[in-house]
Amino acid sequence: MATASISRSDIVSRTLAAVFGGYAFTWGLIAFGMAAMVAADMEFHDAEHLTAIIGFLVFLTIFLTAFAARNIVRVWLVLVGGAVVMASAAELIKNLIT
Amino acid sequence: MLQNFRQSMAWVHTWFGLALGFVLVVVFFFGSLSVFDREIDRWAIPASRFEPQPMPSFDKLMRPIFEDMQPLPDARAFTAPLVNGPLPDHFDKVKSWGAYTTHRDPVLTMFAGYEVPNAKDPETMIFAQRTVDPRTGAALPDDRLKVGSGFFYPLHYSLTFYWKNVGYWIVGFAALMMLVALVTGVVMHRKIFRELFTFRPRKTTQRSMLDLHNLTGVVALPFHFFFAFTGLVIFAGIYFPIGHTQLVALHDQHEIHEALETGLPHDPAGVPAKMASVDAMVKEAQRRWAEKGMAGDVGFLQVQHVGDANGYVSIYRAGTDRIALTGEGIHFKASTGVVMREDPPPTAVGRINEFLTGLHLQHFRHWLLRWLYVLGGLLGCACIATGFLFFVEKRKRQHAKQGSSGARVVDALGVTTLTGMMIAALGMLIANRLLPDVMPDGWPLRGDMEKYCFWGTWVMAMAHAFWRTAPVAEGRIAPAWREQCLAIAVLGVAAPVLNWVTTGDHLLRTIGNGYWPVAGADLFMLTGAALALLAARKLQLRAESKITVNTPAMEAGHA
After folding, report:
1. Phi/psi of residue B139, each to 5°?
2. What secondary structure does DSSP assign to B81-131, as a single string?
3. Could you give the CA distance from residue B391 to residue A22 in angstroms, rounded to a whole number?
4. Are residues A44 and B251, on separate chains, in Cβ contact within 8 Å?
5. Cβ of B402 under 8 Å from any chain A Cβ?
6. ipTM exceeding the 0.90 mark
């Protein structure tokens, strides 16, 4: 396999993006999804289950994308940005409905 | 990352598959055994070798036992640091009593939760557990380990590494990597359908290992994906504890709202109250289930706020004929026995969740599917094992030339996590038959000793694996595989023989009586022993033929 062309820093960056970036993004997505669904009158545990089911599939997709994408910087930006935006949105919705 | 998509995915498959494969193979193997966890319990606890029993009378049998229960020393030790000051000698404030049983349980596990005075977090609870013979109420000794449901099963999802839930996280990450390996594996091989029919055992080891890796991976692909995925869903609350952290306010709001809507009190009233006959409530619940055309047994029974005016009894129908573990809950006021609420049918999402988790946990009755689960799990082990072997075969000659020990280390870890793990499991069962009934003073409890034997055996197998894989560093086959296969063959016969000697339950008797939990466990080990012997013989033949074939070539090379 042509592994010679991969730099160590690239591997580290992509692995960190896949694992931690992916986790943070998925957290944001689940939190936002839960808060939004509860706000839309879905039962709390239903929202919890549904977002988790979707969340794991999204995490899987992100994990693979982090290694497939040509530009890892863009992946980082989307993951961190998405995590912050969605987690904040979840916070906002929570404060609105409690 | 690499020149193209397929190559990047191949890189991920190789390296993440390798790193987490050692965890995955353990999860798959003990998951396969957990399919028959209760049957393994019967093998390990001969006193429990009788037919499964329904939930016994609460009023006559269970209640006095519940009232007598108190947390065991290990629960006290766990709770002690969570409290300001010393623990009380006796916990009086019962929060809940519960008992769960299935169509495969002869003995009944009962648990009680107590309020912990002076706890740093007022929500802290301490639990007591007891396993009883539901026919007599006699308790099994507390030091008796249910090797199947109490050790192999938790090993499957937590590696029994409970500190900060680290074991759960390792297994969860491994499950995600299983999904990753499946998707990347499909990307790597365009001719998925052809893989189903391709196995060339007479080609080189490297080629036939890859064939077998692809075959086992593809043939059980939906099974592997489903189980890795639903495993994550089951523990979603641990991996993404959002409802208990960021959105805990929504969770608490829901609990209060739910208590109002269902009428089931969230908190005790603080007023003592007597308890009406729970047996009458069970009878009423069963009458209501029968009326709906779903007559059934009680699977789960719970009393909340025991002895309080707000106390209530929840009775759930066993899911013997359903995918969901339990269902059709009916709740009664504990003090009067009046029905407070009948659970509505689950919502669409609730049903999806029950389907995903219930199909994974399989508490329903379907023996054929149960065996298919074992087969699927073992195919997973074979898939991961052939992945390791392919990795080693592909690189060992090159590593030998470069003087790298990479292939050897992978091979040694492969031996440890495959044959070594089976040796450890058998070693534990053998210890279970050989240890004295009650450990002498100063020794750990019997169940703890069994666990130490498991880990001790595994460490020895690991040491052997690292010692006897030295030839891999020279590009040859490791004798460790053959030797550990022989060990499995010997131990796999020794365990059933010891079962016979110590309990008198030999195969003729268990099969003659149709007592399949123990007969099945014995037959499974004997079959494993026979296969291991066969594998050892094949490896022996191959090692001998390699020497005769390779020697002239080597000499010619030297000349």
Report:
1. -85, 145
2. GGBSSPPPSS---EEEEEEE--TT-SSEEEEEEEE-TTBSSTT-EEEEEEE
3. 28
4. yes
5. no
6. yes
